[in-house]
Each structure stands twice: as C-alpha cells, then as structure tokens.
UniProtKB/TrEMBL annotation:
This is Globoside alpha-1,3-N-acetylgalactosaminyltransferase 1-like. It holds the Pfam family Glyco_transf_6. Its cofactor is Mn(2+). The keyword Transmembrane helix applies. Its main location: membrane. Mn(2+) binds at D134, D136. Keywords: Glycosyltransferase, Manganese, Membrane, Metal-binding, Signal-anchor, Transferase, Transmembrane, Transmembrane helix. It comes from the Eukaryota. GO terms for cellular component: Golgi apparatus; membrane; vesicle. InterPro entries: Glyco_trans_6 (IPR005076), Nucleotide-diphossugar_trans (IPR029044). Binds 1 Mn(2+) ion per subunit. It is found in: Membrane.
Amino acid sequence: MIGRTDVNSVTNWNAPLVWEGTFDPVVIDDIYRRMNPRVAVVVLAVGKYTRFLKGFLESGEKYFLVGLRVTYYIFTDNEQDVPNVTLSEGRKITILPVPSAKRWQDVVLSKMKWATVTIDKQIRNEADYLFMMDIDSVFYNRFGAESLSRMSAVLHRAFYKRDQFPYERRPESKAYIPAGEGDYYYTAAVWGGYLEDMYRLVKYCYEQSEEDAKNNIEAVWQEESHLNKYFLYNKPAKVLSPEYLWSDYETPGSDIKLIRISQLVKDYAEVRPNGGQ
Ligand SMILES: CC(=O)N[C@H]1[C@@H](OP(=O)(O)OP(=O)(O)OC[C@H]2O[C@@H](n3ccc(=O)[nH]c3=O)[C@H](O)[C@@H]2O)O[C@H](CO)[C@H](O)[C@@H]1O
Ligand SMILES: [Mn+2]
C-alpha cells in the first residue's frame, strides 16, 4: 500500500480520515472477522420511500460489511412493501411499524425518536455497532470494517472543500453554531459507531429537536443540524471521506477514487408526502 498524498488522511484533532488507499482491506477484514461484531443498521422507509428498499438491501449484501453479522432494522408504515431479499449468512431483517407522516421533515426528525426508543427496547441486546442510513441510496463498492470506530461521521460531499458550512445560525434553535466556528460539515445520511455512543447521540438529536419544536422552530437541516452541533463539540473518533456517501447528481473529482454509497436521483416533489426540496 502506497498511501495518499493528495488528500488529508488525518483531521486536526488527529482522528483518521479514511480514503481509498489509506487502509489495507485484507488486514482490516481479518481483524474484524475475528472479533465478529454485531452491526445494526437503522433505516426509515415511510410512504413512497419503500421503493428504495430493494436496491439498498441487495447492494448492501454485496458491499456492506461483507462477512460480518448485520441486522437491518426497517422502520416503515407499509410492511407489505418490504421486498423479499435473500441475505447472506448471519444477516437479517427486522421490520418495525411506524405511523405515516404528512411532512417529510417529520419523517427525518422521527428517525431519532424511533432509533432512541428501539435501542432501549430491543437493539441494545442485539448489536455492538449501529449505523443510521438514508434509504434512498445504493452501494457501489466496498463499505467495509475500516468504517467502524467508536463514532464515525461522513464528510458531506458538497462541503468538504469549503470553509463555509450550512450550520444552523439562528440562536433560537438548539442546533445554533456561532459564525466562525466549525471544522467540517457531516451528512446525516450515513453515520455509525458503538451502540452506546450512538444511543447518546440519537437521543441528543431527538431531545434537541423536541426542544426546538416546543419553541416553534425547526433547524435548517433538521436532524443533520443537531448532528453537526454535537460533532463540533464531541469530535468523531473517525472521519470518513465523501466516498462513504456520494450522490448520483454529481460527478466526483480525481480525489474520489471510488464511490462506496451514492444517493439516488429522485423526484423530490413526487416521492415526498408534502413535495419540495
Ligand atoms: C445526503 C444528505 O445529507 N442527506 C440528508 C438530506 O437528505 P435527502 O434530501 O436525501 O433526504 P431524504 O428525502 O432522503 O430523507 C432522509 C431519509 O428519511 C426517510 N424518509 C424521508 C421522507 C419520507 O417521506 N419517507 C422516508 O422514509 C428515508 O430513509 C430517507 O432516505 O436531508 C435530510 C433532511 O435534512 C437528511 O438530513 C438527510 O440525511
Ligand atoms: Mn436521502
């Protein structure tokens, strides 16, 4: 392995910043397969978003933590639409019913509530690591054990080359970050870590957004704004490059050697209950 000289492979707080070429997949896989951790993946598929389940699960079986134990926790208001996907050994699906919603904003915020409640009730006894993921995504390449840590966050592809970030700037919101602060902007569409650390964080996002709701305010990027505030003051143990969440809307530059997951192109107005971006 030669390493990389065209990108930073460490953050300014000395956490690893993971890019293709900065780790040896064979060595990492060997270490983690011996430890054999149980990994939970929490996804919501509410309303028309059940259409994304098939592609997500089938590609996940090909590329996501292959050889490790994975349970997909699918929160949906439409159980009948969950496809029958053949899973590899040691992997399973758990379906959890949630109510339908009138606003997409309520769905994305409710991720934090359902994750908190279900970790308490069930997942705590079934997993060592937990990932939160958007369902409108497909795996294109290896997303392996190099992604695991106490807390791993993914750089948002639209902001990793910038120094201006779309944080919540209204002091009235719990997600408020003052101007001039902040080192990175992370996506809320993929993040993961040790079960108990993730529990603390999803609960934090849930409670902060509840506080905001009481004060009649909603953070500019919903749960993503609260997540970014948490990570500003509680640095992730590992940062994953935008390889770990790209988007089919955009062609990557030469620093992205491969795309591991990508968000699909979708008709926002058609797929969301209340339309809109
Ligand atoms: C790449 C990225 O940064 N993505 C973020 C961005 O995503 P997107 O604009 O891609 O949001 P989105 O429409 O994918 O919604 C996020 C997720 O919520 C679920 N869902 C949403 C609506 C619905 O009617 N039914 C349903 O199941 C589903 O799992 C979906 O993947 O903005 C969202 C809201 O601020 C979240 O922060 C996402 O993580
Ligand atoms: Mn999405």
